[in-house]
Records
---
Amino acid sequence: TQLLEQSPQFLSIQEGENLTVYCNSSSVFSSLQWYRQEPGEGPVLLVTVVTGGEVKKLKRLTFQFGDARKDSSLHITAAQPGDTGLYLCAGRGTYKYIFGTGTRLKVLA
Amino acid sequence: NAGVTQTPKFQVLKTGQSMTLQCAQDMNHNSMYWYRQDPGMGLRLIYYSASEGTTDKGEVPNGYNVSRLNKREFSLRLESAAPSQTSVYFCASSSVVASYNEQFFGPGTRLTVL
């Protein structure tokens, strides 16, 4: 069974701080996606990484796919209250995409 | 474009009752999915439809049935609801981009089974 574990589960930080969220597995994935979900809404795709070692930047967000394609990280620089939400990683598995358990981020003004 | 729409937004059922969750997308996507989201467990795939006329079981299909009515619509039916089916249900559709799918999610249906 392919599993994705995210850490930390919860994170509360002050505006302006930097943070990193991790997504780890013992399985290899052909691609990995990051989503952000706000309360009462469905997840929204932020990025897809497909190549081992790939780094993608989306404004203040930097996504990295591990060389072995088993893990990924999301780094946010100078976090803002608008970054608050549930961050989910998802790896392409047998049943299409397998989702991690999520990291709930709260950025305090 | 409305994207992916789901009805109803909220529902309360008694154990043993049945209901159908409706989902429609206007993006001309071939693939559609039903997920459930429970606290601390992320999103789990219930059923998916790779194309019109086909459906396949996902990770947690027991207690559910689906119908791909046409390319736009994909419904999820609970024949005899159980408290363990209390959850938030999300429908999604996807387009193929190179080697991966981009999934677009609806706003969810919050279901409570008493």
---
Amino acid sequence: DTEVTQTPKHLVMGMTNKKSLKCEQHMGHRAMYWYKQKAKKPPELMFVYSYEKLSINESVPSRFSPECPNSSLLNLHLHALQPEDSALYLCASSQVDRGYGNTIYFGEGSWLTVV
Amino acid sequence: TQLLEQSPQFLSIQEGENLTVYCNSSSVFSSLQWYRQEPGEGPVLLVTVVTGGEVKKLKRLTFQFGDARKDSSLHITAAQTGDTGLYLCAGIDGGSQGNLIFGKGTKLSVKP
């Protein structure tokens, strides 16, 4: 089973709203990721969690706040977003965050629209 | 900064034709992955190649990893309309960070 589950599938939020994206995997993976993807572009890395600790933050604005409650769950808290933050947000996981042969598996994505 | 050059960016072919997509870099990757993505969906993993010179086959898809682990190709034989989609190559850098470096993608359209 190589499944990464994301909810919600679609989210529309106003610029003053607070919402969260959720991600879950039960593959025993110890690295989890958030990526952002705009139309016709490849995914861009936002955050990496390794063993439940934030290991990489790719200079993401503070209106995006990640959280890793346990090794299976990853959240992305959203607050005061801008319309240009509208994108497909992808969660991913891998056995570890580095190493020979490491493979990263993606969820189906959460399509976010900020109005 | 590692870069992964993917070509072609767009490809439109007739059903039954063969095609090859290339990913090239001047840097070494510890592994390279190929994904296929539909609009509004997440990338679906097709294959991971790890060993230099490795060839993997997935039905009509053949993946090669260069001997020096700097380049890779995806060859599709007798393309079908169901092969239509965005194909992404992504390499895990050989450094300590283990980041996934994406190519820009190849948008394939197979017409009946």
